[in-house]
Amino acid sequence: RKEVEQDPGPFNVPEGATVAFNCTYSNSASQSFFWYRQDCRKEPKLLMSVYSSGNEDGRFTAQLNRASQYISLLIRDSKLSDSATYLCVVTLYNFNKFYFGSGTKLNVKP
Amino acid sequence: GAGVSQSPSNKVTEKGKDVELRCDPISGHTALYWYRQSLGQGLEFLIYFQGNSAPDKSGLPSDRFSAERTGGSVSTLTIQRTQQEDSAVYLCASSLPDGYTEAFFGQGTRLTVV
């Protein structure tokens, strides 16, 4: 079983829409959680860390549900520039290795 | 340097040749990762180095692939007797060893085996 699972999409949404991605992780000892963004033919870059209490950065909101072992990313008022692949990432306690999901592709259409 | 540096950025090689890909991590980052990404696919974990510990080689797809990290800094990924299916972008990332802070990626080496 993979450490991190994501719906590959693609999610095709119009500009201005709200879209949400979920990601599940298999190990309850997971320590830290992140969302990365990868543009076409570019390297992944950190979008935001995910904190236990949830956190918001402008139009982006990340949530963590430890009981159900999933994290989510909500994007409000989608822009064309949000089109990218979003990668879910976790690390484990006492094992500082990053586990990447395979990514969810988002296409925002005019 | 300011970020993770990979070289070369592009490499075209003939089938059967050996190639070496280089990664220079961020100074002070003891954790170093190699991933492979085929066109339109997700990241495929290859190998992980953490300080002086034995590397986690569980992702290497065959014995044609090897990697080393000298002096806890620069890493080299070597692919022997390249095959066409080795064509991909090879991404290197580095991080602090705390498990809390993010991993930073280099821009990758695009390998094409012809």
Judged by helices, strands and strand pairing, the structural class of chain A is mainly beta
Low-confidence segments of chain A: none
Say what oligomer this is: heterodimer
Query: Uncertain segments of chain B of ≥5 residues (pLDDT<50)?
Result: none
Total helices of chain A: the number is 0
Q: Strand-and-helix sequence of chain A, N→C?
A: EEEEEEEEEEE
Short description:
The complex is a heterodimer of chains A (110) and B (114). Chain A has 110 residues and is mainly β.
Note down, in words, how this protein is organized.
The complex is a heterodimer of chains A (110) and B (114). Chain A is mostly beta strands and 110 residues long. Chain A has strands at residues 4-6, 11-14, 19-25, 30-38, 45-50, 55-57, 60-65, 70-75, 84-92, 95-100, 104-109. In chain A, the strands form two sheets. In chain A, strands 2, 4, 5, 9, 10 and 11 form a six-stranded mixed β-sheet that branches. In chain A, strand 6 (55-57) and strand 7 (60-65) form a beta hairpin. The mean pLDDT of chain A is 92. In chain B, the strands form two sheets. In chain B, strands 2, 4, 5, 8, 9 and 10 form a six-stranded mixed β-sheet that branches. In chain B, strand 8 (88-95) and strand 9 (104-105) form a beta hairpin. Chain B contains no helices and ten strands. Chain B has 114 residues and is mainly β. Helix content of chain B is 0%, strand content 46%. Chain B is globular and about 40 Å long. The A-B interface holds A 8, 31-32, 34, 42-46, 49, 87, 89, 91-103 and B 31, 33, 35, 41-43, 45, 48, 50, 56, 91, 93, 95, 97-100, 102-108.
